[in-house]
Structures are given as C-alpha cells and as structure tokens.
Specification:
Keywords: ATP-binding, Calvin cycle, Kinase, Nucleotide-binding, Photosynthesis, Transferase. Its EC number is 2.7.1.19. This protein is an alpha/beta fold and about 290 residues long. The protein has 8 helices and 10 strands. The strands form 2 sheets. Strands 2-5-1-6-7-8-10-9 form an 8-stranded mixed sheet, with helices on one face. A two-stranded antiparallel sheet has the order 3-4. Helix 1 packs across helix 8 (about 275-290), helix 5 crosses helix 6 (about 145-165) and helix 7 packs parallel to helix 8.
Length: about 290
C-alpha cells in the first residue's frame, strides 16, 4: 500500500501513472482519494468549504475502505468526475499485489496513515504547482483562468492548515522546482529534490552517486524541517541526455532488476516529454514497492 499525497495539481496522477504502467495493471491498481467528495460542483456553490477540505469529503468512508484494501478485500468506492464536477456510479475496486492511493487527504488521519506501508508527499515549488493547476483545470476540467485563480485563493487556508501538514507524516518528500540562480533555456526539465527519511528502510545510494560516476544526481546529508538529519537526493533537470542515460542505468541496476531495461513509462510527464528527475523518483518508489519497506 503506497500513499501519494500532495496539494491540488502537485503531480500525483503523473507520478502514479508511471508506477502503474511499469508494474502492469495485473499487479498494480490505483485510485484517487479525491473521489470521496461529499458535494458536487453545483452543491458547493455558496458553501464556506472548498472541495479539498475534509468537511467536503467522506473521510470516514475512505478510512474504512483503506482498512479493507490493506487486508486484501475489495471495496465499492465512489467515483467523482472532475471534468464535469459530478459524482458518478460507484465502482468495484479489487486490490492487486500493489495498491496506490493518491489525493489531497490520504495521510490526513492517523487511521488512514496506518494502512500504508510507504507514504510519499509531493511538494513542488508553488510557482510550478500553480502553472500545472492552471494548465490542467482549463484544459481538462473546463475552468476559466479567473475561476482557477479564485479556487487557488479559496483553497489556501485549507492547504496551510490541512494538506501541507501531511508532509510531516511522509517517508519520502519530493520537490520539483527550477534551480535558483541558474539561467537555463526554456524547455529545461525541472530538477527534483527527494528527501529519504529514516522512517522506513531506504536504499543505500552512496556508492552509486559518486561525483566521478554521475553528474546528473548527488546525495547529501541535510537537515529536515524538524532539524533532524535526512538524506537528500538531488536530480538535476539540466543534465545532458547522455549523462541522464548513464545515471538512470546506474540507479536502475541498484534499485530495480538489472536484467530488465528501464520501463518506458518511467519519466513520462504526460505532456509529450520525458523527465529523468521524475524517472529516478519513480525508481525509488518502485524499489519500495517491490522489495518492501518494513
């Protein structure tokens, strides 16, 4: 059981889709915790809470379903169509060998957190997340730019009080962003910082990530937000294609199956481009899924 939590438009679906495709739908199934909406888009008009607030979601039902899935039992889960803002017919969800749950609230309650073997929090830079949200909500969900801006401002209170605190409960924190001080050309991939907290057994990458071996990624010991030491993996978006290929091969041999090529689905941004920082992040999560974390 893997949780992928994060604020609206943090990249949860993109990260999850690559993992499911790499493992195969016969072994891995995923769903959005955001399907547990209490109100549709029309019903929310005039309410004081937004769609990402716990009061707008059936959090208790999500808890029950996570407990059932953690013991290998199927659930009849709700379905919410974000493209039109309405609830759809519930569907039977049967767990596979691996279950990934992504959304804004999967780590909100103690009971929900207890159901997961590994928990990830996506924490992209706010300017990056905002650009992703504008692009998605206009192209996929039918919002105007003005409506996206209004929703962003309305969600800020809930984000600060409810969503972002889930970061402290994650075993892995991933931040996609540009690198301050660099003047990279347009189209340069975002870099990634991956915090590998000692709350689960993390892979040992110290021998692989040596400066003489690869310039795409490096590992350093830093301080977490609570002041405790934590391993921080940096994957540079500006590295050359050749450097990226070497880094991916080295990390895949260390984390995955050296007899199998890097799955094509890893690193797919869903926008017609490929990202090595995303691919390496997904490799780490695959390592946890395939080998266990506890």
């Amino acid at each position: 059981m893997l949780a992928v939590a994060g604020d609206s438009a943090a990249g949860k679906r993109t990260l999850t889709a690559g993992l499911v495709a790499a493992l195969g739908p016969d072994r891995c199934a995923s769903f959005s915790a955001d399907d547990y909406q209490r109100f549709d888009r029309a019903e929310r008009r005039g309410l004081t809470v937004t769609s990402v607030h716990p009061d707008s979601n059936y959090v208790d039902v999500l808890e029950q379903h996570l407990q059932l899935l953690a013991t290998g039992q199927p659930v009849l889960k709700p379905v919410y169509d974000h493209s039109v803002g309405r609830r759809s017919r519930p569907e039977l969800f049967e767990p596979r060998e691996f279950v990934i749950v992504h959304g804004v609230l999967p780590l909100y309650t103690r009971l929900s957190r207890a159901c997961f073997d590994v928990a990830v929090y996506l924490d992209p830079a706010e300017d990056v997340r905002r650009s992703w949200k504008v692009r998605r909500d206009i192209a996929v969900r039918g919002y105007t730019a003005e409506q996206v801006d209004a929703a962003w401002e309305a969600d800020e209170g809930t984000s600060a009080q409810v969503i972002r605190p889930q970061r402290s409960h994650a075993d892995i924190v991933v931040r996609f962003a540009t690198i301050t001080g660099r003047d990279d050309p347009p189209g340069t991939q975002l870099s990634a910082e991956v915090l590998l907290r000692p709350t689960v057994s993390q892979p040992d990458l110290t021998q692989v990530l040596q400066p003489a071996v690869t310039g795409t990624a490096h590992l350093r010991l830093t301080r977490d937000t609570d002041g405790r030491p934590v391993d921080s993996l940096h994957v540079h978006g500006y590295a050359s294609r050749e450097e990226n290929a070497i880094a991916e091969k080295l990390l895949w041999e260390a984390l995955g199956d050296p007899n199998v090529q890097v799955p094509d689905a890893l690193g797919d941004t869903g926008c017609g481009t490929r990202s090595t920082p995303l691919a390496i992040t997904q490799m780490i999560l695959l390592h946890h899924l395939l080998r266990g974390s506890r």
